[in-house]
Write a structure and sequence with these properties.
Distance between the termini: 34 Å
Largest sheet: 6 strands, antiparallel
Oligomer: single chain
Number of strands: 11
Strand content: 15-25%
Protein name: Phosphotransferase enzyme family protein
Pfam families: APH
Structural class: alpha+beta
InterPro entries: AGP_Transferase, Aminoglycoside_PTrfase, Kinase-like_dom_sf
Amino acid sequence: MESCCPLPFFAAPGLLPAPLPTADTITASQDALQEDSSRRIVRVGTHFIVKYGTGVSLTEGETMLFVKKVSTIPVPNLYALYSRKNEGTNHTTNYIVMENIAGESLASRWVSLNTAEKVAVAGQLRSYFTQLRQIPSPGYFGLLGKRPFEDFVFRVGAIANQQMLSGPFDTVQKMLDAMVQKHLLRKPELQKSKYYNRVLPLVIRNHVPIFTHGDFQRKNILIKNDGEVVMIDWEAAGWYPTFWEYSMAIYSCNWKDDWHLWVVKVLDEYPNEYAWMDTLFRELWP
C-alpha cells in the first residue's frame, strides 16, 4: 500500500482553485507565516500556502498525498511538489504548494474552548490517530519509501555515519542504538551513553512500527469555521515505535495549561517510555 509519487508533482488543472503561483511570486510574498535561514512558509493570495527553501524536504508533500490516499483524515490539498536549482550555487530549493485552510490554530484557540468543545476536538483527533494506526506496517522504522528519519533526534549534520544514525531501521533495538550513538558522538566524554546502551533495551522492547504524525502539537492542528479539525505539518511523519507519538507530544506540551490531560484522550499512553525518551530527547537536541 505504501508508495511515493513521481516527482515533480502537479495537481490536475481542474483541481486547482486558481493558477499556481510562480516561483518569483512565491519569493515576493510578504505574508510570511514562518521563516528561518533555510525555509519560508508564506501565504500567496487567498488560495495557497507554500513551504519552500533549501531546508524543505519534498517527502513531507509525498506523505500528505499518501495519508489522503489511505485515510479520510483532513489534510490540506496538495497542488505541487518540485525543485529548482539555485543559479550560481550547488543548492536546490524545494517547493511544497498546498491549500490555504481557513481556520485558526488550536494553539491560539485552546484557551477559549469550553469543555464540550475540547471533547469534540479530542474525539476528532482520536479518530484520526486510529486511522493512522490502522495503516498496514511495511516492517521498518523510517520515513515513507524506506527513507531515513529527518526528525531532530536523528540529525547528525556532517557526521559521516549519517545513514547509520538516521535509518531506516529493521528493529526498534537498532533505532535505539542509533540514538545512543548520536549521544556518544555529541558527548564522547560522558559515560552516560554506555549506560543508555545497556539499559534502554531492558525498558523499551516489543514495539512495532506504526504510522505516526511525529509532531503532535496544537500549533499543527487547525480548527475550521465549521468545527472540523485539520492536521498540518507532516514533515516528521513516518513509521515509528508505538510509544513515539505519545512521547513526543508530552515532551513538547510545555506544561502551562491542561493540554497534557487531553493528549491522553487522543493517544494511548506510554508513561514509562516517555520518561526515558524525555531525558534522551533533551540531551540529543542539536
